[in-house]
Amino acid sequence: MNRIIKFRGQNKNDWHYGSYIFRDGKHFILIEDDDNGYYSEVEVKGETIGQYTGLKDKNGKEIYEEDILKSGVSDVICKINIGHYDDTSSSQHDIMGVWFNIVGEKKPYGFAKAVLTKDSCNIMEVIGNIYDNPELVN
User: Fold this and answer.
1) 2 in any annotated domain
2) CA proximity to 64, closest of 81, 78, 76, 77
3) 118 phi/psi in degrees, rounded to 5
């Protein structure tokens, strides 16, 4: 299975999707123009850069880092992270992958992080991200 590597970043209020470039202290998303094969660069705010997880929610929407997902089975809201998870108190020690942090829930489930898989995405829905919807994580 080939993994799609792409990013998103925001400039002002617009999101741009493509390859990520860091040059001369600035952050850019490189966007391909499908009609003629040309590329354009859009400068974006560095703090908004997020990588595509390679996963989609139950509606087929791509899931990126810092997205906020809601579970379809319970009132749980999760924030997505890609990276290294090392929790020596867990059986899932020293694992690289896509993780979610539970940031809001009506019932305590006893864990703060868990692995996001293709199967678990079938019950999740992207409802925003931490930049456009900070009220969802507060």
Assistant:
1) no
2) 81
3) -60, -40
DSSP 98: E
Residues 6+ apart with CB under 8 A from 113: 85, 87, 99, 100, 101, 102
CA distance 101 to 105: 11
Could you give the CA distance from residue 60 to residue 121 in angstroms, rounded to a whole number? Answer: 9
Domain span at residue 126 reads: 53-136
This prediction has a pTM of 0.77
Q: Do 35 and 68 share a structural domain?
A: no
Which tokens hold the place of 47?
Answer: 């703090």
**CATH number where 81 lies:** 2.30.30.290
User: Quick one: average pLDDT of 73-84?
Assistant: 66
pLDDT tens digits for range 83-104: 654 555 454 444 445 666 666 5
CA distance 135 to 39: 35
